[in-house]
């Protein structure tokens, strides 16, 4: 069975005040073209369909058009909600749409029923698990000890009672430990929302959403397909793609990437104002792309944004890199901070601000507060 795997559409997203709807409409048409060329039997959309739990009317209409195009092609389409989505809104009308081959799981209710597909090798069971929090799972498993996202997902998977002799696919939206991140993803420092890859051992393929960089995890059958568009400067050098997973007889899996090119790419340029605005420089680049510019001039250029936008109309961000900006105090580099428990980062900040360490009582209080807030108030 051939499965096309996408995620993290973030329909309706704005990046540095630029609406991405035009780019998203373009890339969804590209994905339809890939489907027509590769003829998958099923499509998995692994969460973060929208960028907000209450999406704009334009974003909803765009997704409606995309679903209609998929339904015209008589595909099996599996959709789970992500942390940016409203599970209730994504699940609306799911029982009616399943008659058209479009499957959306209900809001988590303690049970996960698979959809059975068939190919020349027999049955394939597709499980859909929306983004879940520990508090949601505790409601239905009150006797279980659930103190983290790892505990919650482990319990949710165990109750599926998977027959390992069959071929099984899981579509879900969570953060699996070991994944490489981009700045546009919501990452919560520490290990509270990390999921261990070993939880998904029973599945022949796990189609993940949440991380924007395409990558394999575990033994290679756990995969983030990545977002089809770039959403931050940290993604500039990524080649965006969609994933094709071909599940043959039990134990065989072939994964491939199909690149997708945006209508307008993300670019970054660095240099002095005189160089960046010299015609000989910008005549050799696509000035219509979304642009991040870092100026190296020692003094701020008056009205620089307005002047640069005459050349780069999609200027996303202007920054400076000079002796003044480099001398500014930085509490902690983010790449290092991701490896440090959040209470320790707060303690470092507290010491810099107050010139003395936090007390044991203060550390205990902030650790408890962080855990409570992140567990119950994640978007």
Fold and architecture overview:
The protein is an alpha/beta fold. It has three domains: 2-259, 4-Layer Sandwich (Purple Acid Phosphatase, chain A, domain 2), CATH 3.60.21; 266-326, no CATH class; 335-377, no CATH class. The protein contains 13 helices and 19 strands. The strands form five sheets. The protein has a six-stranded mixed sheet with strand order 6-5-4-1-15-16. The protein has a six-stranded mixed sheet with strand order 7-8-9-12-14-13, with no helix packed on it. It starts with a strand and ends with a helix.
CATH level-3 fold name of the largest domain: Purple Acid Phosphatase, chain A, domain 2
User: How much helical structure, as a percent, in the residues?
Assistant: 25-40%
Structural class by secondary-structure content = alpha/beta
What would CATH call the class of the largest domain? Answer: Alpha Beta
CATH architecture of the largest domain: 4-Layer Sandwich
Overall domain count? 3
Residues in β-strands, percent = 15-25%
Q: What is the rounded Rg? A: 23 Å
Biggest sheet: strands, sense, closure? 6 strands, mixed
What shape does the CA trace take? globular
Number of helical segments with 4 or more residues: 13
Q: What's the number of extended β-strand segments?
A: 19
What is the terminal-to-terminal distance? 34 Å
What would you give as the CATH superfamily of the largest domain? Metallo-dependent phosphatases
Major sheet: order of its strands? 6-5-4-1-15-16
Low-confidence stretches: 331-335
Mean pLDDT: 89
């Amino acid at each position: 069975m051939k499965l096309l795997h996408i995620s993290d559409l973030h329909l309706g997203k704005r990046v540095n005040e630029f609406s991405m709807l035009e780019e998203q409409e373009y890339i969804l048409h590209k994905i339809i073209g890939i489907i027509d060329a590769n003829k998958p039997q099923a499509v998995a959309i692994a969460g973060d369909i929208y960028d907000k739990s209450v999406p704009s009317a334009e974003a909803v209409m765009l997704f409606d058009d995309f679903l209609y195009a998929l339904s015209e092609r008589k595909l099996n389409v599996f959709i789970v909600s992500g942390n940016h989505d409203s599970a209730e809104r994504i699940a609306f009308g799911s029982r009616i749409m399943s008659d058209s081959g479009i499957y959306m799981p209900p809001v988590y209710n303690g049970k996960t029923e698979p959809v059975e597909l068939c190919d020349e090798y027999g049955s394939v069971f597709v499980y859909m698990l929306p983004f879940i929090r520990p508090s949601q799972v505790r409601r239905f498993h009150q006797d279980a000890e659930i103190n983290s996202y790892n505990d919650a997902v482990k319990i949710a998977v165990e109750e599926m009672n998977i027959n390992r002799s069959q071929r099984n696919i899981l579509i879900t939206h969570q953060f699996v430990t070991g994944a490489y991140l981009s700045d546009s993803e919501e990452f919560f420092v520490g290990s509270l929302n990390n999921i261990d890859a070993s939880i998904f051992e029973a599945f022949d393929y796990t189609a993940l959403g949440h991380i924007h960089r395409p990558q394999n995890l575990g033994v290679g059958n756990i995969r983030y397909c990545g977002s089809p568009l770039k959403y931050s400067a940290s993604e500039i050098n990524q080649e965006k793609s969609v994933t094709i997973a071909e599940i043959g007889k039990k134990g065989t899996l072939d994964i491939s990437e199909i690149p997708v090119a945006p209508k307008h790419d993300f670019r970054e340029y660095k240099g002095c104002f005189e160089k960046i605005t010299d015609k000989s420089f910008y005549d050799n680049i696509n000035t219509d792309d979304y642009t991040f510019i870092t100026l190296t001039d020692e003094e701020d250029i008056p009205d620089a944004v307005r002047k640069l936008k005459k050349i780069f109309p999609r200027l996303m961000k202007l920054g400076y890199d000079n002796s003044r900006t480099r001398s500014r105090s930085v509490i902690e580099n983010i790449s290092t901070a991701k490896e440090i428990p959040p209470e320790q980062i707060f303690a470092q900040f507290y010491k810099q601000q107050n010139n003395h360490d936090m007390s044991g009582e203060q550390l205990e209080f902030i650790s408890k507060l962080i855990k409570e807030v992140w567990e119950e108030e994640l978007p």
